[in-house]
């Protein structure tokens, strides 16, 4: 059985995600938004299953940096 790590969402991260999704809902088609959400979900699953795949953050070595797209990085 694969072990999954726990994700911790800060209040700021939750607010940022909500803002991003609101922005995308107003500018993208529903298909594009769904694709983005699916891509995000896959990346989060990858992070929880093996976070050491991603490099340590230069900002805080306790954090890992996962690039979702050119415009989006998950810490």
Which range does the strand content fall in? 5-15%
Provide the succession of SSEs.
HHEE
Q: List segments where confidence is low: pLDDT < 50 over at least 5 consecutive residues.
A: none
Query: Helix- and strand-based class?
Result: mainly alpha
Helix content: 40-55%
Rg, rounded, reads 13 Å
**Which geometry do the CA atoms define?**
globular
Counted beta strands: 2
Strand order of the largest sheet: 1-2
Alpha plus pi helix count? 2
Layout of SSEs?
Layout (H helix, E strand, L loop, with lengths): L10 H17 L2 H20 L16 E2 L5 E2 L1
Offer a concise description of the structure.
This protein has about 80 residues and is mainly alpha-helical.
Write a concise keyword list for the protein shown above.
75 residues; mainly alpha; two-stranded antiparallel sheet; 2 helices; 5% strand; globular
What does this structure look like?
The chain contains two helices and two strands, in the order ααββ. The mean pLDDT is 92. It has a domain at 26-74. 49% of the residues lie in helices and 5% in strands. A two-stranded antiparallel sheet has the order 1-2. It has helices spanning 11-27, 30-49; strands at 66-67, 73-74. The protein has 75 residues and is mainly alpha-helical.
């Amino acid at each position: 059985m694969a072990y999954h790590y726990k994700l911790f969402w800060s209040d700021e991260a939750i607010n940022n995600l909500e803002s991003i999704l609101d922005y995308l809902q107003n500018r993208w088609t529903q298909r594009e938004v769904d694709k983005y959400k699916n891509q995000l979900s896959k990346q989060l699953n990858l992070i929880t299953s093996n976070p050491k795949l991603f490099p340590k953050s230069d900002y805080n070595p306790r954090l890992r940096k996962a690039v979702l797209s050119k415009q989006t990085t998950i810490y």
